[in-house]
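Q: Can I see a sequence and its folded structure?
A: Here is a first one.
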Amino acid sequence: MHGSPHGYGLNAQTLPKALRYYLRAPAGRIFVTGDLSQAEARVVAYLSRCRELIECFNDPSRSVHLENAVAVFGKSVIKDTPEYTLAKAVVHGSNYREGPKILSVSTGLPIKVSKQLLSNYHTKRPEIHQWHDEVWRTVKAKGKLVTPLGDERTFYEAISCFSLTGRMTDQHWKDAISWVPQTVVPHVLDAGMIGIAGLRDAGLDIQFHHQGHDSFLCSVPIGEERVFFDAVYPIYSSIKLSSPAGEYVIPQEYAVGYSFGDMFGYTGSSVTMASWEGLVSAKLAKKSRAQQILEGCYGVHLKDWRA
């Protein structure tokens, strides 16, 4: 929550999971969503020329999160366990040069453990640190960065600091490292949503409901899911990105449902309300709603304070 001249509210782009369950599709309609798959991590892999990550991303039989967990812990983990979630946090922090103190705060781990996990990952993925150094050299030499889609930013504060002191602060460096991946992803999403708006204007019955950093939420008449996805797929697959490691596309993962909090992977066929309710019941049988909300809001070490 945050304050503003108009009162208090929240950032609707990063809507908490606890609130998503209250958002239901309009009568006679079903939610359809597209989520750019592992978008920022994929951009970082190509920018850093990390061949092992790129090969993993491009092989549907492999899981980049599970393989990264092996790099972090030195052992295999099970999907959706606390260790799996923790590994994702370590990788995200490593990609953007996050230090052990910050990682410790976000995960609840001792600083010593956080430092070791970050070191483990960078030992297995040395290209990430090499890319960090390359970003620093580029900003130092040119004062700016340019994304594959032509967005450009001049780092005035970093340049001024370097001119006066001969160095950039650690925060300047982190800001520069994160800028291209975190700018490319919403640009790709926006470009695709403009295409979806064109489909709506051409006559498809599409309503927009939410836009996140790397995902959109629309609704269509029940039974029209396939028409929607068949029209959207070529829009996003045509958005090609260039990189030092070659050209690539950020794929999308599609889901459907009657509640924003309970979306299920699209399988190619329409989902009735009854079949969706069955999927929700099976989901709740595995994990209660309260547990889902807490894990979505507070991360991986809930047992430390709920015991």
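Q: Show me another, different protein.
A: A second, unrelated one:
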Amino acid sequence: MGVRRGNALPAGLVLAGAVSVQTGAGLANRLFSQIPPASVTTLRLWAGALVLLIVAGRPTARAVADLRRRRAWSDALVTAAFGVTLGFMNFAIYQAFDRIPLGIAVTIEFLGPLTVTVVGALAGSATGRGRAVALGYAVLAAIGVVLLANGIVGHLNWAGVAWAVGAAAAWACYIIGSKATGQRMPGSSGLVIAMCVAAVAVTIPGVVQGGTRMFRPDLLAVGAAIGVLSSVIPYWLEMEALRRIAAQLFGVWMSMQPAVAALIGLALLSQRLSPAEWVGICCVVTASAAASRRPKRGEAPATPATAPPPASWRPAPSPAPVGALPQAQSQPTRMRLPPAR
């Protein structure tokens, strides 16, 4: 089953983001021998925040000024909460990487987007058949994850498992928060603000644990590279994808993360895969492709919305995120996130 023509772009965005973030994870794993994971997290997020400020600082400043002018404190709170979620998600998964293998940590973290997928499938289809088909994609992806982890779950560091579970919860909140922020903020300004909030949130533990070592020029350079690969590129690509597809479809496509992590682990960390793990990769990729095919009668569609963004944003015309409410030209131009489905 091929990817629908209208979904080809967001599918490519999600895949490119997965490759980028897992490559950054592999580089970070190598850096843990020199500075603690909290310090690597701090370098990663500050590098990402500084790059985004350079690229999109002016429009972000205008967006902040517009928030103050409109006294849109609820929009500011949503964006700040998104930033805290980003900070904790990065902190938690790096703590997990330091204690358990990369592929296992990402496999556990996958439970977050899988939960979003299952909940969206249950609520998004009007018929039992449609729900069963949507759930089938998630089940197939889950089988792939189990196969990827086959045979080694009995030797895990349970503190690492706990951190990975925390990262999974944060990842589920990230999907929802990214969508909500994209609906409330113009362009990439929401991402820039959230990244700055995330960097500030992890600074104290990072500096306390890393001390002056983390400011060595060579470590700063590696941290900057990790920040670009793990934060700037994937978050930007994923927010653009979420503007075009439903959150539950995004969650299924993100099921490629364990497979990508396994391949990156093989390339960067010499982590060889068993036949069962390769079968798991095939299950995950198949579920992702099947979920993006043209839906049949009774299945939940995954078509992008076409409602215009608020006129007060003044961005270039672009499709609004799925779930945005269409607005008449004569009514006030405020976009609100509809109740969760």
